[in-house]
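Entry:
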Amino acid sequence: MKLLTITLNTSVDIAYQLGHFELNQTNRVKNVIKTAGGKGLNVTRVANILGINHLATGVIGGTTGEFIKRDLEQDHIKHDFYETNIESRQCIAILNRAHQTELLEPGDSITQEDIQSFMKHVTKLIQAHDIIAISGSALPGMNVKTYQALIDFAVRHDKKVLLDVNGHTLKELLNHDGQSVPYLIKPNIEELNQLFNVKDHDNQQEIIEALKSPLLSQIPCVMISLGSNGALYKYQHQIYKVNI
C-alpha cells in the first residue's frame, strides 16, 4: 500500500510555551517549538511512525517552505511538493498551563496558473499511489472545485480518497449531485453540526440519525470524532462506537 498525503495550505507551526500569559502585556516565552504543519503533514507523520510507504505533497514556497522541507527530512518523511513564489504561512499556538490560544494565518493567495501547474504535478503522483489523503484548508485563490477535481481524478483511477476538510467545504462537496465522492470522511462534531444542525452534541442517537442521512449514503466510511469520548464510525450500513 502506498499513501499520498495532499496538504494544500502547508504551514510552519510555532508553539510558544509560557508560564503565564496576559493580554496587553509583554510576555516572555519559555520555549519555542517549530514544526512543519498542516493537517496532511500530520497524517504523514503518523503514517511514517506506522511504517507505511508514504509521500507528502502540496504547495510550499519561500523561506517557510524551505523550513518545511528540512523539518520533514529530519524526520525521514518523503516529500515531493509543488513550489511557488508565495510564502508558506505560519500558525502560532500560545500555550500557558492548560490553555491554548491559536493564531492561524490564511496563507498567501495562489494564482490560477500555479493551480493548473500544481494539478499537473499532483495528478502524476496520484496515479502512482493507492490511497490519497486530502486534509485541511486550501490556499486563498483555491476553492471547492480544487478539492473536487482531486477527488474526481483519484476516483477515476481507482484510488481510495480519505478526506478531512472543514464543514462548509464538506457540505459543498456532498451537495454536488453526480460528482465522485471520497471513500472516507472524518468530520468532528462541530463540522457534523454544520452539515445536519445536530443540536445536542451529547445525544448519541441524534448523531447516529445524522450518519444515516442520504447525504452520506454513498460514502462507505464516515468517522465522527468526539474528542475524549472517542468516535462513532459508519462502515457501509453498520455503525460502531469507538472508545479510547
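The longest strand covers residues 53-61.
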